[in-house]
Design goal:
Blueprint: E1 23-27, H1 55-67, E2 72-76, H2 86-93, H3 95-98, E3 104-109, H4 114-123, E4 128-132, H5 138-144, H6 150-162, E5 166-173, H7 182-191, E6 195-200, H8 211-214, H9 218-226, E7 231-234, E8 242-247, E9 253-257, E10 270-273, E11 278-280, E12 289-290, H10 291-296, H11 301-313, H12 334-337
Parallel strand pairs: 1-2, 1-10, 2-3, 3-4, 4-5, 5-6, 6-9
Antiparallel strand pairs: 7-8, 8-9, 10-11, 11-12
Helix pairs in contact: 1-2, 4-6
Bound molecules: S-adenosylmethionine (SAM) and iron/sulfur cluster.
Iron/sulfur cluster binds next to loops.
Length: 339
């Protein structure tokens, strides 16, 4: 058996608490063409190239997970579409879609390069993408992203839809900046046929902005929305921290990701790999396994699989976030771990 042949049963990846891991988020780069204030410092020091997994290494690790029963693969970053050669990686990984081993290959992107990539993504079998967008105000967008161009993202979303991709919008809820705009953003997304998910800020990595100031509880947002909309709970559960409702007035779906105010860990089905090959089995804990060292130490496919199994076996029971703490609960930036 080879790792490019995930048809051979290896047994599911089950952790020490009986949760089956079926979803891998793969960060393909720590770099980005934007500098969102809640995500990155203004002057980031990016990793030297030698520390970042090559495209071949990324494919090998992802394929090992597919062999172990992972059904859903999401590429993220940093900005996945700034990684040189990323389309080759995606086109390569799409063989697991063709074989039926993978049910979904997708990505989370800031959308700024979708005009260029949308058609090739669709041709590679990508069906849905998440696009992060916190505001429809060009000036505020420029400020929040430290220099981004809103038009590029809006054109990117249109290009993705024209290519047949379904687009979900992710918006970080920020008390100072976009709280009042959220109903308008939701209505806009639904008007374009997009689901939208609101995210609470998470204390990941040192950035200049004060997150306690920007923290906006989605419980409060929901209460506010319910003063003029009917939100109907829908039982959609993706195994992650999102809870979904349907907005009766717009007909669209709205998700709430509340990692700080809810415990979503019991049903967690996912793990994350950084672009340096560090496997994090919990977003909110420091536990990790260095798969790059395993690979570069000349591991066989069987060694790699054993290293993954051991790491998943030790997946922590739950997270440890607290936005009120002075220090981030976890020192790494979201752009390193992959959102
Ligand atoms: N560059 C891509 C993008 O922006 O969609 C993918 C990577 S980005 C790190 C993934 C998601 O994480 C984005 O939706 C972003 O808004 C979110 N994010 C980044 N830092 C965050 C933080 N501190 N708290 C909550 N969400 C954060
Ligand atoms: Fe870049 Fe995404 Fe982080 Fe914004 S949220 S700086 S687009 S990685």
């Amino acid at each position: 058996m080879t790792l490019t042949d995930p048809g051979s049963p290896q047994g599911a990846l089950v952790d020490g608490f009986g949760r089956t891991v079926t979803y891998l988020r793969l960060s393909v780069t720590d770099r980005c063409d934007l500098r969102c204030v809640y995500c990155m410092a203004e002057h980031m020091t990016f990793l030297p190239k030698a520390e970042v997994l090559t495209l071949e290494e990324l494919d090998r690790i992802a394929s090992a997970f597919v062999t172990l029963g992972v059904r859903k693969l999401r590429l993220t970053g940093g900005e996945p579409l700034v990684r040189k050669g990323v389309m080759g990686l995606i086109e390569g990984l799409s063989r697991h879609l063709a074989s039926g081993a993978l049910s979904e290959l997708t990505l989370t992107t800031n959308g700024a390069r979708l005009v260029e990539f949308a058609d090739r993504l669709a041709a590679a079998g990508v069906k849905r993408i998440n696009v992060s967008l916190d505001t429809l105000k060009p000036e505020l967008f420029r400020t929040l992203t430290r220099g981004g161009n809103l038009t590029k993202v809006l054109d990117g979303i249109s290009a993705a839809q024209a290519a047949g991709l379904s687009v979900k919008i992710n918006a970080v809820a920020l008390k100072q900046d976009n709280a009042e705009e959220l109903p308008g953003l939701i209505a806009w997304a639904h008007g374009k046929g997009c689901d939208i998910t609101l995210i609470e800020t998470m204390p990941l990595g040192e950035v200049e902005a004060d997150r306690t100031d920007q923290f906006l509880s989605l419980k409060d947002v929901r209460r506010e929305l319910e003063s003029f909309w009917s939100l109907e709970d829908i039982g959609l559960n993706t195994g992650g921290p999102a809870r979904y409702v349907r907005v009766a007035e717009t007909g669209g779906r709205l998700g709430f990701i509340t990692p700080l105010s809810h415990n979503f860990c019991e049903a967690c089905n996912r793990v994350r790999l950084t672009c340096t090959g560090t496997l994090h089995t919990c977003l909110g804990q420091e536990d990790s396994a260095d798969l790059r060292a395993v690979l570069r130490g000349g591991a066989s496919d069987a060694d790699l699989i054993e290293a993954i199994r051991n790491a998943v076996d030790a997946k922590p029971k739950g997270h440890d976030f607290d936005v009120a703490r002075a220090q981030p609960a976890v020192a790494r930036h979201m752009s390193t771990t992959g959102g």
